[in-house]
Amino acid sequence: MADTETLTGPAPTAAPDFAGYSCPLPLRDHPRVVMGHGGGGALSAELVAHLFAPAFGNPLLNSLADSTVVELGGARLAFSTDSYVVRPLFFPGGSIGDLAVNGTVNDLAMSGARPAYLSCGFILEEGVETAVVARVADAIGAAARTAGVQIATGDTKVVEAGHGDGIYLNTAGIGLVPAGVDIRPQRAAPGDVVIVSGEIGLHGVAIMSVREGLEFGVEIESDCAALGGLVDTMLAVTPDLHVLRDPTRGGLGAALNEIASAAGVGVEIRERAVPVPAAVANACAVLGLDPMYVANEGKLVAFVPREHADAVLTAMRSHPLGARAAVIGECVPDHPGMVVARTALGGTRVVDLPMGEQLPRIC
């Protein structure tokens, strides 16, 4: 019990209306897309809220979760799509192919769904070696088999040399949501215990190390993995998990902010409780990065009712992908929409939603 006892759309319009738009790079003043708009932080959120949501104008998008749950023929299905533009294509611990499968499988799992089928779209740049395409395709097939899903449909397009970066991928997926499961950001509630499934920051630092040719004394591998089995283990304890989120772009800091904002609650974490491996901490210190905002591809953060937290934590630690799971904080009624970290010195700091991405093109 020690882990938990110590815790205390608008309607569519003919054209986007940016009159009320406010951020350091508002669209009305900067009419061109910048890299930060794809980084999973505040710029991405502003783009979605002020451009895409009004254009699409449908209530299925309102939750802005990792996947959308829809009802079809009496079944509840989770549906998600994602695109992958990582550079380089291959990195310690994985490849763009592994990311494409695991990223979409994990988005489905964050709704409590059991992933079943994926689509896969290839956008190839003229001149890319067919041997490279074959390596990526093999990685996709192997990752799909490991995750227990099938590639059911796909597409291939080729763009002129100089108009791509070798290979871009898009995957969409569907999965079945079990009866009694309702996992979404809006369900976070005061008293919930916040649990992270393991050490953060590995994927982003692994990408940066090979991209920039940096050495940190030890090879850092991406944590890229499919989380469906871990989620099944958690749901076996209780179907009443309030929120699951895989902290990819924008890292753990962005994920916590998105949940706090969606539910209108505050989140308090203990900075020292957040598991950051020494190699990631050292690399971030050298690069001037904050591990809270570095991407992960095989971790999840869970908001669990307090009465189930100890049992869920124990179950997570029994699974290989949750062996280093840790309680890092709790959900509170104070400072709604804000994430606050208690520092090792006894003070507090606000964990803001990042504007963009510390490390672009990491997924």
TrEMBL record:
- Name the family the entry cites: Belongs to the HypE family.
Q: List each copy of the PurM-like C-terminal domain by range.
A: 190-335
Q: Which InterPro entries match?
A: HypE (IPR011854), PurM-like_C_dom (IPR010918), PurM-like_C_sf (IPR036676), PurM-like_N (IPR016188), PurM-like_N_sf (IPR036921)
UniProt protein name: Hydrogenase expression/formation protein HypE
CDD domains named among the record's database cross-references:
HypE
Q: Domain PurM-like N-terminal: where?
A: 66-177
The UniProt entry, under Pfam families, shows:
AIRS, AIRS_C
